[in-house]
Amino acid sequence: MRAAASKIRMGFVGGGEGAFIGQAHRQAAGLDGCYELVCGAFSRDPENNRDTGIALGLPASRCYIDWQHMLAAEQALPFDQRMELLVIVTPNHLHAPIASQALQAGFHVFSEKPAALNLAEVLALEAVVSDSPGHYGLAHTYLGYPMVWQARHMVRSGVIGTLRKVIVEYPQGWLSHDAAGQGNKQAGWRDQPELSGLGGCIGDIGTHAFSLAEFVADQPIEQLCASLGIHVPGRQLDDDAAMLFKMAGGASGVLIASQVCAGEENPLKIRLYGDKGGLEWRQEEPSSLIHRSLDQPLRILRSGIGQPWLCEAALQRMRLPAGHPEGYLEAMANLYRDFAAAIGQGTEVVGVPGIEVGVRGMAFIEAVIANHRGDAKWTTLARHL
């Protein structure tokens, strides 16, 4: 048994110096004071691994040369000293193997997405998660934003009526040139199928758009018709994707994901339209939710503690009064906070994407690729695998 009031002891695989996402995870995990970083295997480069550990104030004895040594050494420590939660922020091909072994060794796991390299691998991981007493969470950070939960609540409550149309788009511009050829390591591994998986852009950011659409619409996508493209010569994996889709409740939709939209930063956006009105949320302005009504003036709902017109799920994820911007780190911190509550209280995880979202995401990637390569107009995406 763990002391309920004590901080959760956390270890990292990946996230060495120069890795944006690892630093973001550490900052987000530290926001609510629920975690204590106790160990890590931060990089395959010994110097980077050592320097990262020193910068984070860790003793050399708990900066491990690789994740295998870390799992074995931490498992051998007394329960009140060993790592409790393993955070995985490596390239995609390591997500499932590390998560599987960590769960089997008795640790909780919080992993960057995607959950695995392919559908077969994620289904095998799902079986491990099912058999393990440990918790498993997936860092679909955009599902931590309060106004995303507000939008979902308004769809569920019938504020915009019967859902008819969903338009979700995620354009980026950072791969508009040959970034990998110019030495960008993040771009390099993302274009190697053995490290990234079969999908390029569709796996990296298309899955974010997909999970956001299913979450806010509160219904699964059942069929899709997709087109993938490669615009930069020499690239192996897609850098551009567009598709039509049909949802279980009858709504039709459009999903666009691209990393060659020159000049764009991170403007993930979703619009939903029912027979009574519509909603719009944009990640670059996350505190606002636009509500369009069929017979009323447009209104903009703003986030902030205590706003009486917002739902409880949204209010639980707000940290500041109205007018004080909250962003990406706070959204990720919401996932970490909910995960910590489940670990600390020994309860089921609520509010954090889990293995089921990982399975859906991988099924989505493979359905998109199959449709693009095949002759069928529509490809069915199984609701439950």
UniProtKB/TrEMBL annotation:
Q: Which GO terms describe its molecular function?
A: nucleotide binding
* InterPro entries documented for this protein: Gfo/Idh/MocA-like_OxRdtase_N (IPR000683), Gfo/Idh/MocA_oxidoreduct (IPR051317), GFO_IDH_MocA-like_dom (IPR055170), NAD(P)-bd_dom_sf (IPR036291)
Residues covered by the Gfo/Idh/MocA-like oxidoreductase N-terminal domain: 8-125
Q: Where is the GFO/IDH/MocA-like oxidoreductase domain?
A: 150-280
Q: Where is the signal peptide?
A: none
Q: Could you tell me which PANTHER family the record lists for this protein?
A: CONSERVED EXPRESSED OXIDOREDUCTASE (EUROFUNG), OXIDOREDUCTASE
What protein is this chain from?
Answer: Gfo/Idh/MocA family oxidoreductase
Native source species: Pseudomonas karstica
